[in-house]
Amino acid sequence: MMLRRGFILFLPRLVGLLVVACCSMSIVYMLACTPKGDSQQLALPRVHSPTGKEGYEAILQEREEQHRNYIISLKKQIAQLKAELQGRTEQLKNMQNQYPDSLDIRLDHSKPEKAQANLLAFLRSQVDKAEVHSGVKLSTEYAAVPFESFTLQKVYQLETGLTRHPEEKPVRKDKRDELIEVIELAVGSLNKPDGVSKAKPHVYTASDFVEGIYRTEKNKGTLYELTFKGDAKHQFKKIVLFRPFGPVMKVKNENLNMADTLINVIVPLAKRASKFRQFMQNFREMGIQQDGRIHLTVVYFGKEQMNEVKSILENTSKSANFKNFTFIQLNEEFSRGKGLDVGARFWKGNNVVLFFCDVDIYFTAEFLNSCRLNTQPGKKVFYPVLFSQYNPSIIYGDHDSIPSLEQQLIIKKETGFWRDFGFGMTCQYRSDFINIGGFDLDIKGWGGEDVHLYRKYLHSNLMVIRTPVRGLFHLWHEKQCLDELTPEQYKMCMQSKAMNEASHGQLGMLIFKQEIETHLHRQKLSSKKT
Fold first, then answer.
1. Where does residue 271 fall: left (phi above 0), alpha (psi -120 to 50 degrees), or beta otherwise?
2. Residue 76 counted as domain residue
């Protein structure tokens, strides 16, 4: 009873509270929906008022005018920003032109005046840090960053993987655009008037481009060295560019005259007269007839087949009217390092480019030019990565279908591989070879001496140019690993022998030949049953 009375007495109060709450909500709603004043929002006229239509039109026109003015204001701001950006770009270009090309002068980092100056100083410091002007000391043979080479049509690359090829067109758009930009920039730089010469300048085009090499140091940038045809035969122009993870910067523009640059090809040899005959055919065509600035030094070990080798050399000399050769005979056990060292030190003329070669190597006249262009006394030595040929009898099947040697010299995954583990073929000036200490003459037999010399150069301040080249081939021959070799040498010899035979896919076909034939036989049986 008491609860009922309390509820009855409380009910009128509850109703009153609800009425007050509803009134309050109505007032708030009216205040929120009331149109704002002229200073905040234009009030819309009432629909039934006599000026309703004219009022709407006036408001629409006013809104349209406001939007038009806003668009005009945005366009002005965009134009101002473009003008300012253009001005900043011109300032940066002017500052770049104020500094010499040699980059021997560093910018003063302690007094930066503008953001552009700081940026330019940073980019220049990247060039200074990179291996552009001189080499840096490296700890092992694996620490050197190799170059990759390219022409107008092809890129020659070491890191092929399973999908890339040792020679291919730059399929990726970013790589293609990068190389086109670099070549165009180099052509523009060559055609820029120097203000000194009064003679009519030669107008360079992309067709004058001979070859280029490039490599990327991950924490610095990309270095490009591009070679163009010069004004006369045997003359070239070299442009060095560097992209320090920013704009491409011209580093160097120099004239190179290779007309008088002689190459001394040194070949150590023992027996193998038939291979030497094949080598001399290549040497005569490419070295004597096409290049003409070449000397041959043959260091022969022992006396077996020596007369036959000397006869081949003398016949070539007579038929080609070639007198620039030296024959040195050593009565001792064959040592490649000893032969090359003796041949290099035997030279008594002016400083000369030495090309350490083997009898099973095929080279082109273009490679001889690359040998000259990538060596510089006291600064550069050249370690080309040659293309090693697979066993032709495996590649082409039956012996009757094996093409001629010249037709076999194509750069494809199926025909060979970049011999990036070999350091035996190298070009350097004789002065650098002597100053570095030459070969380790304690190494006997096959292998080891080339890596030892390579490490010496890496540990020096000379720049080592390591890049695949399209004109240097290692011809396949059956490799014999002798029992007299040390365990390490024997292991290296067997690894080299395995890699020389065929590609992974071709070796796999040989290994699984029986399974493949069994599968084909089953397929024939099943087709007969059906």
1. left
2. no
